[in-house]
Design goal:
single chain; 320 residues; alpha+beta; Endonuclease III, domain 1; 6-stranded antiparallel sheet; 8 strands; alkylated DNA binding; DNA repair; DNA_glycosylase; DNA-3-methyladenine glycosylase activity
Length: 320
């Protein structure tokens, strides 16, 4: 239920989840590095997000207290953001199905290990934003580069082409521009952002198909169809598709195959040895249906193989 608040233009909603939800943990995958113009956590613990909804731009503030979620939203997209708030926080996430998967896993030691990880984060949910292109652009910027390089490009493009966040959002927040704007960004601004021509072309081309991509989330979330459409586009492979569907469709079974770090991390967590994509998928197979959830739990565990070589350097395409 939403209502008008005392602050001009604000809409409000209170929601009591049927199971515990950790708001910060569930919404954290949408944060693209420090200073992300579309995501902030304020000192009071609230999470602020901006989004370009089907109704227009909006700003959402989410806080939790004593098991109740309190949402406030501003802008033309405010009502939509509040209506879909439970989905963003994983109301459709089948945690009971995950428990059944653990109980039926033949590898008892692996199941016990994953169950222990899950017990540490009972409020973790895999939520869905229903905004495909919003998840796609930063995912493409993150292709084959270190995070800080991709996040720098994201910040630059958002500050240059985004619009100010509606309402009393923290300073510097912005709403992602619509697909038609991404289609018209000139080559020199992609260069200034630090994104080379390949990633720029991938985003521009995807912007031409944004409406079709969005339909896979809005017309009843269909992650398989989204995967098919995404991977049919030049420059979008299995890794990018998974990164998008994890966020837009809340797919708990979309592991990021092709990631630079994740296979080694999964192998180390289960066996004490690093592995490759094939080895990772073999280790995750008993948890099919929830493979991304298991990866997420391993990421949160802090289990990492020891670093034995130099870090992948950040490349600054602005100097090329």
């Amino acid at each position: 239920m939403t209502s008008a608040g005392a602050v001009t233009g604000v809409r409000e909603r209170r929601w009591t989840p049927s199971t515990p939800v950790d708001v910060g943990l569930t919404l954290s995958p949408h944060r693209r590095g420090g200073g992300d113009p579309a995501w902030r956590r304020t000192p009071d613990g609230a999470i602020w997000r901006t989004s370009r909804t089907p109704e227009g731009p909006g700003t959402l503030r989410v806080a939790e207290r004593l098991g109740e979620v309190y949402g406030q939203a501003w802008g033309p997209g405010a009502e939509w953001l509040l209506d879909t708030l439970p989905q963003a926080l994983g109301v459709d996430d089948d945690v009971s199905g995950f428990a059944r998967a653990l109980a039926s896993t033949p590898q008892a030691d692996a199941a016990a290990f994953v169950a222990g990880l899950a017990a540490r984060h009972p409020g973790l949910r895999i939520g869905r934003t229903l905004r495909v292109f919003e998840a796609l652009v930063p995912a493409v910027l993150e292709q084959k580069v270190v995070g800080r390089e991709a996040w720098r490009a994201w910040r630059w493009l958002m500050r240059k082409y985004g619009e100010p966040a509606p309402g009393p959002a923290p300073e510097g927040m912005a709403v992602m521009p619509p697909p038609q704007v991404w289609r018209t960004i000139p080559s020199w601004d992609w260069h200034r952002a630090g994104a080379e021509a390949v990633r720029a072309r991938t985003i521009i081309n995807a912007a031409h198909h944004a409406e079709k991509l969005e339909s896979t989330a809005l017309d009843g979330p269909d992650s398989a169809e989204a995967d098919r459409l995404l991977r049919a586009l030049p420059g979008i492979g299995v890794w990018t598709s998974a990164e998008v569907r994890q966020r837009s469709h809340g797919d708990p079974d979309a592991p990021s195959v092709g990631d630079f770090h994740i296979p080694g991390m999964v192998g180390w967590a289960f066996t004490g040895e690093k592995t490759d994509d094939a080895g990772m998928l073999e280790l995750l197979e008993p948890f099919r249906g929830h493979r991304h959830r298991v990866v997420r739990l391993i990421e949160l565990s802090g289990l990492r193989p020891p670093a034995r070589g130099p870090r992948m350097p950040a490349r600054d395409y602005r100097s090329f």
